[in-house]
Amino acid sequence: MPETAPVTSTVRPELPALPAQAERLIELGVHELAGLTATELRAFARNAGDSDDSVDGERTLLAVHPDRAPASALAPLLRREEKPGFVVTDMPDVDLFTPLEDLALPDAPLYLLTGIDRGDQMANWSPNEALPALVEQRRTPLVLTEGIHWVLQQPAALERNHCFMTIGSRLRKANGALDARTPAIWISNGTGRDGGERRNAPKVGWCWAGNRHTWLGFASATGRRRR
User: Fold this and answer.
1) Does residue 63 contact residue 146 with C-beta atoms inside 8 Å?
2) DSSP output for 175-215
3) What distance in Å separates the CA atoms of residue 219 and residue 179, rounded to the nearest whole number?
4) What region, left, alpha or beta, does residue 46 occupy, with left being phi > 0 and alpha being psi -120 to 50 degrees?
5) How many CA atoms lie within 13 A of 87 on its CB side?
6) Residue 13 has pLDDT above 70, yes or no
7) What residues contact residue 175 under an 8 Å CB cut-off, 6+ apart?
8) pLDDT digits over 151-192, tens only?
9) Which residue among 29, 129, 147, 193 is least crowded, i.e. fewest CB within 10 A of its CB?
């Protein structure tokens, strides 16, 4: 295992305020995907309070529960260089990747994440190595939909050679074992089955749980809360 290092990235652009995040989701139609009205989404952001939407100077992220807005519906809303996001063709079961049992997502259609970080300093770790290290540092790995929400609100979170995994989501096989794939969000090179027209588009894909990649960190947060 690589030496233990702080998870904190060197790149930490500020998230928009919660009301602005709500407007972004409304603009994209995410509220309709989630079976919510624009009024309900705006009220949630407003009631969270401008004075309460940051922790230690870092703004929180507004997320829709994956049961309401799955990854397959959110991924095409991503944009980079005017190109829409997509899910790799060999991940048709993307929505079956659910939160690990130890992750307690709030039982609500909308919730907040605090202290989100890309985990650049864990690049070249494997998911199997990164998960216990995150737990030891009292951080929680992002699930896939949370990672997509982050990039929807803050496209700069996804950079060439600085992308991230969302290892809070895993697929449980029929025999109870974890599928060896772990979801990630990165930028397509337009090769292979992606197609040249998708070069530079945001891409939802997967990596093996035991493999290391120098260009993938491990997105995590300090916590989740309903309000």
Assistant:
1) yes
2) TSPBPSEEEEEEE--S-GGG-GGGTT-EEEEEEETT---TT
3) 20
4) alpha
5) 18
6) no
7) none
8) 999 999 999 999 999 999 999 999 999 999 999 999 999 999
9) 193
* Contact indicator for 5, 121 with CB cutoff of 8 Å: yes
Would you mind telling me the total number of residues written for the chain in this entry? 227
The Cα–Cα gap between 33 and 200 comes to 26
Residue type, 203: K
CB 129 within 8 A of CB 2: yes
Encoded tokens for 85: 């996001």
**Residue 56: Cβ within 10 Å count:** 7
148 closest CA partner among 97, 192, 103:
97
